[in-house]
Amino acid sequence: MHLSSNVQTQMHGTVFTAVSTTTIDRTNKELAQEQIPDIDKSAKTQKSEQVSYETTSQLQSSTLVAFKDPTDDKYVILSLKDNTIDKLKSHFGKDDFYKRDDGIIRLDNKAESYVSGWFGDIAYKREFLKADSDEDGKLSYREYGQTRNEFSGHGMIGIGRVDEYVDKNYIKNNENESQIVRYNNKNYQQPQNIDEELNTTLRINSDFNNNISLRESYNTNENNTTMSTHKLIENHVNEAIHLGLLDEDLVLNLLEKETKESQKQLEALQKLKMANGDTISLNKEELKALDGLLPSDTKNIDNDEIDKISKNITDQMKIKEAYKTQDSENSSKIMTLKG
Question: Which of 37, 47, 201, 274 has the most CB within a 10 Å radius?
């Protein structure tokens, strides 16, 4: 099914939030004098008392970075993909990245604060460290099920709008919750360690605001990155129809209500055209029907613009009418198509 451009679509809620951190700006001399324990790439080695987490399997096309754990001030040593580092440098500046003689990049200042905050969220709030029961730095399928890398949500359809909401976050992956919205969906590959999840989080938090919004969470599937919210929600509605979460009558009823609203808009536009585009001629109800369709910075609308808006509404009405007039067999096929 197609959601017309007249349908308002919006996503609400926060999925994950970075741990609060302190920002410290060190000099290069201070960073050069730091004694960071040598990383041991073998699994199940005795960790240094100065290190809270060190990677056991460096990611491809990545560089080892070091920063302070926000909870205990110990060092964290893990791998960030080179394109992740490039993104961070573009936002925070190159001065926050000090390359040591051993090849490790020491994060500093705001870059360290940002990355450390997300590490804290993944390691402790999403419980990746706790889930790694054999402490080998890797997450098996069973161990990943113990992480809280999940959330639940729901969608709501009203007259002329579809909204999606986060209901509960930091849910264990093995909890049997009824979920329409899923972070760990079929298009999201299970992370094998903290490094992978941290890189994913840093990639999808596009505005660097320390919160993963519902919309950003869908970008774990990179195919969604360039997709509009409107199109993404349309796909979700179609998937819900396919799964039987929305029945045909509900959808057709929504289209019927949209058609009535569209008819009101056409009538108001015709009245506006008769008044040579003077919006003062419209009453409060007619102005409400046209809210969002007319330019907000002028009181006189050109007749060509009115005709253009009217044609768009009429075209959308024809599409909706086509859905409503399908015979039962064809209608059934339409409602089972996936987005």
Answer: 201
